[in-house]
Write a structure and sequence with these properties.
Layout: E1 3-9, H1 17-28, E2 33-38, H2 56-66, E3 70-75, H3 84-94, E4 107-112, H4 120-129, E5 144-145, H5 161-182
Parallel strand pairs: 1-2, 1-3, 3-4, 4-5
Bound molecules: flavin mononucleotide.
Domain NADPH-dependent FMN reductase-like: 5-143
Protein name: NAD(P)H-dependent oxidoreductase
GO cellular component, one term: cytosol
Length: 183
């Protein structure tokens, strides 16, 4: 049976390149992986006061992560870090203390930017905040997608062969790694 991957999209923007990349990865994934796109619309701010009685949107987000076999973060770069909405989602998913929904899940980070640095700073920040609350993070191949602004047509389809190639190589490597870890 295919392994399920919760693909968390770090942008709320309707025309988000991160969302388009997540959709492209779902299409390019081999049959051994089933990618489920999770957008963060409606996920409320983490507030420690609400922990004893968590809001339904936190519970539902946590359950989606818990029932997946692996997690993939598709992150834009905001001010040399990940986006605030993604950090909030990580905070929500990381609690209650010691019971992070991400724990033990093989984790991938796909960073992107229309600019020349490909979101590398955002990916580095994720790599510094995740280790205590996630599972193993795929280290190679790394993926920092530069110049994504002209990678899609107005229907969101991939139009750049080089981008498709690198996405395919990444998701195949991620699938093989998940397969090994989940054996
Ligand atoms: C608040 C803000 C900060 C940004 N900071 C960076 C940055 O540090 N590096 C970068 O490459 N792009 C930066 N950008 C540009 C984003 O990469 C660009 O808006 C991108 O399209 C956002 O991702 P999305 O298409 O998935 O929404 C920033 C954009 C915003 C709105």
């Amino acid at each position: 049976m295919a392994h399920t991957v919760a693909v968390i999209v770090g942008s709320l923007r309707k025309e988000s390149f991160s969302l388009k990349i997540a959709n492209a990865l779902a299409r390019l994934a081999p049959p051994s992986l089933k990618l489920e796109i999770i957008t963060l619309h409606g996920l409320s701010f983490f507030n420690q006061d609400l922990e004893p009685n968590p809001p339904a949107d936190w519970v539902s987000f946590r359950e989606k992560i818990q029932k997946s076999d692996a997690v993939l973060f598709v992150t834009p770069e905001y001010n040399r870090s990940t986006s605030g909405v993604l950090k909030n989602a990580i905070d929500v998913g990381s609690r209650p203390y010691g019971k992070s929904s991400f724990l033990g899940k093989p984790t991938g980070i796909v960073a992107n930017s229309p600019g020349p640095l490909g979101g590398v700073a955002a990916a580095m920040h994720l790599k510094s905040i995740l280790p205590g609350i996630s599972g193993p993070i795929l280290q190679q191949p790394e993926i920092y997608l530069t110049g994504v602004g002209d990678g899609f047509d107005d229907k969101g389809n991939l139009t750049k062969e080089a981008l498709e190639k690198v996405l395919k190589a990444y998701i195949d490597a991620f699938a093989a790694w998940v397969e090994r870890l989940k054996k």
